[in-house]
Here is the input.
Amino acid sequence: DAGVVCPAYLCLLRQLREVARLTADSWVTAVSWSPRGSELLAGTWLPCDTVELLSLDADRTTLTPTRRFSPHPSGVRIVRFGPDGAVAITAGHDDGLGVYAFSIPERRPYELAFWDGGYGVHDVVFSPDGTPLLVAASHADRTTLLDASACFVPP
Here is the structure.
């Protein structure tokens, strides 16, 4: 019945409470937790067009900016951590898609690869093993599968 609401759903809604908030300099358009849950990527739009790496403190109440980089000249639409948290992918309004690694231990981002499909990217997802990438593009009825195995160093 469409009018019945799951009691567990109501319980979850009642128990949500804000524990942390970080005010950004621009519009936050995308977020992604690291697999360990200790870091967050946040992508922004105007005026900054940046990706920010944030750390969550041990009490899980404070987000602290760790690194900021600008992979796209016209707004970030998508940010995703890879399955191991060592690699991230970003997609922007510029129709580009970037793959980034983070140096250890300082977590400084560096570009591993860039792809411009020319049709805009509306979503990106890593396969469970980290490669290849599945890219769903806009402005064209297509889904593109990219092999990103060259971007990963075996353990």
In short: The mean pLDDT is 80. The two ends are 50 Å apart (CA to CA). Helices lie at 7-15. The longest helix spans residues 7-15.
